[in-house]
TrEMBL record:
It comes from Streptomyces kronopolitis. InterPro entries: GAF, GAF-like_dom_sf. Signal peptide: none annotated. It holds the Pfam family GAF. Residues 418-441 are annotated as: Disordered. This is Transcriptional regulator.
Length: 441
């Protein structure tokens, strides 16, 4: 079976592959169609890049300047893993005329090291520390696509969405917190076409696993963690063992984690299904299947979780309660279970988003407002855009760009006056209210 995450099968002609994929790329930009030999993972990434209006030409934006980079990088969890990256990939990058890069979950490059000549060449496309290389801002590329798919991947030459990057080939693997399972970032090697081999992908995968093992060695104790922000299917980690839950089980776990005192069957049923009539056997069957996955973690009479559960929702709430909007925004990975229609989840989702937005609006910090406006859930938020304009210095040349975007959004929604304070516009009909999801194991 061909590995779909590898750029080319053994014996393939890289010149011919580049030619055919470049033609497919041009066709996709012209009419949105994509066909073989484009891999499915690349086709999916092209579509996400197009939906996010990523530029097919141009350079990635610089989001972390020198003053902000140092402290952020020093405090990042992956700083502890840099000795592992340098030991396993540093000499490979230096001797093979490649680059070693490490980014955070938002795709911002925190370290870029390796061959000096290659670094100078990469600077021309802003592959430098502080630049944002997620798919939304740089299109299809190995670190950005590895983050979006939560899987190690190679991106070869013309598979890159941005034409300026199509002379490069790269391989990247995501990294996770060994205790919570949450995404920490990605490690990448970037260079020439010779990186399009099974060895480079295997090397970054092995490096990522070694780095996670190194981080795990410093974990004082295990526990139970639940991640559900920005995910359609929650990630449950119990004593280091990760499990991706189905959508209904995700809703149940989120509701039980939010009610540590427990819920009766009737209470849980209303939070899951609303007031519409539902046979009790339906809920019991779901809970029985969930118990098969989580074992003694799920108790009944009332339904509750037997151990304390650390959730990403709670992390955001604690940061908000402490008056720290920077920490809250860093922990807010997106709306809670964005596709869930369970009434209880919808209420939790709306309350958390409202509290987070209010904290950002109250902080009057251009950096926080700009970060929210660059997310899939905040890019059409007119109130945030207008607050960003107001928060910028009066003579700042950047004032005109947000205002232009706000005007464009007003026209798109048929609005002529200022948005009502505290009110976000309805999503555009063509936009899907979800985000790139990891593949099922």
């Amino acid at each position: 079976m061909v590995n779909p995450w590898l750029a080319m099968e053994a014996g393939a002609d890289p010149v011919e592959r580049t030619r055919t994929v470049r033609r497919a790329h041009a066709a996709f930009l012209a009419d949105g169609t994509v066909a073989p030999p484009v891999r499915q993972v690349v086709a999916d990434s092209w579509r996400r890049s197009a939906d996010a209006r990523a530029a097919a030409d141009g350079t990635a934006p610089i989001e972390l300047d020198e003053s902000a980079l140092g402290a952020y990088r020093d405090g990042h969890p992956l700083a502890r893993a840099m000795p592992v990256f340098r030991e396993l990939l540093g000499s490979f990058a230096q001797d093979g005329a490649h680059l070693l890069a490490v980014c955070d979950p938002q795709g911002r490059l925190l370290w870029v090291e390796g061959h000096r000549g290659v670094r100078r060449s990469a600077e021309r496309m802003n592959f430098v520390v502080g630049a944002r290389w997620d798919e939304r801002h740089a299109g299809t590329n190995a670190p950005g696509t590895a983050l979006a798919a939560d899987h190690a991947v190679q991106i070869f030459a013309a598979e890159h969405y941005n034409r300026q990057v199509q002379r490069w080939t790269c391989a990247a693997a995501p990294l996770h917190d060994p205790r919570t399972g949450r995404l920490l970032g990605a490690v990448d090697i970037t260079g020439g076409d010779h990186l399009a081999s099974p060895h480079s992908l295997a090397l970054v995968q092995a490096t990522a696993r070694a780095a996670e093992a190194h981080l795990a060695a410093g974990v004082p104790e295990w526990g139970v963690c639940l991640s559900a922000l920005g995910r359609d299917e929650a990630l449950l980690v119990v004593d280091g063992e990760r499990c991706r839950l189905g959508r209904r089980h995700s809703e149940i776990m989120v509701l039980l984690a939010g009610h540590p005192e427990g819920l009766t069957g009737d209470q849980l049923s209303v939070l899951l299904y609303g007031e519409r009539e539902r046979r009790p056997v339906t809920l019991r069957a779901e809970l029985s299947r969930l118990r098969q996955l989580v074992g003694t973690l799920l108790h009944s009479r009332p339904y509750r979780l037997s151990r304390p559960v650390e959730t990403d929702v709670r992390t955001v709430e604690e940061a908000l309660a402490a008056g720290d909007p920077h920490a809250a925004l860093a922990a807010y990975r997106g709306p809670l279970l964005p596709l869930s229609e369970a009434p209880g989840v919808q209420r939790l989702r709306g309350a958390l988003e409202d509290r987070t937005r209010c904290a950002l609006l109250g902080a009057h910090d251009p950096a926080l407002l700009r970060e929210w406006s660059r997310t899939p859930w905040g890019e059409d938020d007119l109130v945030i855009w207008e607050a960003l304009v107001d928060a910028l210095p009066e003579r700042s040349p950047a004032r005109t760009a947000p205002m232009a975007t706000a005007d464009r959004l007003r026209a798109a929604y048929g609005l002529t006056g200022a948005s009502r304070a505290g009110t976000a516009p309805a999503p555009a009909p063509s936009r899907v209210a979800t985000f790139p999801q990891p593949p099922r194991p």
